[in-house]
Write a structure and sequence with these properties.
Blueprint lengths: L28 H5 L15 H5 L1 H6 L10 H11 L17 H5 L6 H17 L2 H4 L2 H13 L2 H14 L4 E2 L2 E2 L7 H4 L4 E2 L6 H12 L11 H6 L1
Antiparallel strand pairs: 1-2, 2-3
Helix pairs in contact: 4-6
Length: 226
């Protein structure tokens, strides 16, 4: 049985096999169907249009996916069929450029499912103490707290501007220490500006604000009331 077959004629008297058996193999598809976001992966008709459009697949080839399902559709089907126990790296094997979604004839929103599966993987890791204490998880938790509050965010920006001074050369950072070095391994990072847009806007507003003490100087109505 394949996605292109929709009609079975059964058996014919005195012609060929006389028994017709249908075996329905679930293989985890019921679990996938229960996911409101991930279930759209089951709409796939195996046309391989997403494979031809995917820049990651063109560079890595099919064997890198470790499954019969390759390319972008394999990156969302394989982890779900295997309950996220295998192929944990597959949802990250994408630049989320959306070329697969544009090429898909049944309009499976593969980038949406990829992001959804990435979140599922993170939540699974966070359910264990080792995942909660993971350096990446702790740093993301700290970032979430910073981004949730404007004052904390602006304070972090000021600290980052001071911390980048020893590393900045001609407006760029070409080396970062530790695990941050991955950002500068093949590119330079532009240094943070000395003044953010919000700081510039507040300064501009103060300069353009009228002088309240001289607001009523020469005002006839104010003079008469006095």
């Amino acid at each position: 049985m394949n996605p292109y077959t929709s009609i079975w004629t059964g058996v014919a008297a005195n012609d060929g096999p006389q028994e017709f058996h249908v075996l329905l193999l679930d293989n985890g598809r019921t679990h996938v169907l229960a996911d409101p976001v991930g279930k759209q992966a089951l709409h796939c008709i195996r046309c391989a249009a997403c494979l031809n459009a995917c820049p990651v697949y063109r560079q890595t080839g099919g064997h890198a996916y470790g499954s019969a399902y390759q390319g972008p559709i394999g990156a969302i089907i394989t982890p779900q069929l295997q309950s996220m126990r295998h192929g944990e790296s597959l949802p990250y094997a994408s630049s989320l450029c959306g070329a697969c979604y544009d090429a898909c004839p049944v309009k499976i929103n593969i980038p949406e499912v990829l992001v959804h599966l990435r979140g599922e993987l993170v939540r699974q890791k966070q359910s264990h103490i080792s995942g909660k204490l993971n350096a990446e998880n702790l740093s993301m938790q700290v970032m979430a707290k910073i981004f949730a509050n404007a004052r904390r965010f602006e304070a972090a920006q000021r600290l980052a501007r001071m911390a980048q001074r020893p590393l900045t050369r001609n407006g760029f950072i070409s080396w970062l220490p530790g695990f941050l070095g991955g950002w500068t391994a093949s590119r330079d990072v532009q240094a943070l500006p000395q003044r953010t847009f919000r700081e510039w806007w507040r300064e501009r507003t103060r300069k353009n604000q009228p002088n309240k003490q001289n607001k009523f100087v020469g005002d006839p109505a104010r003079s008469s009331n006095a």
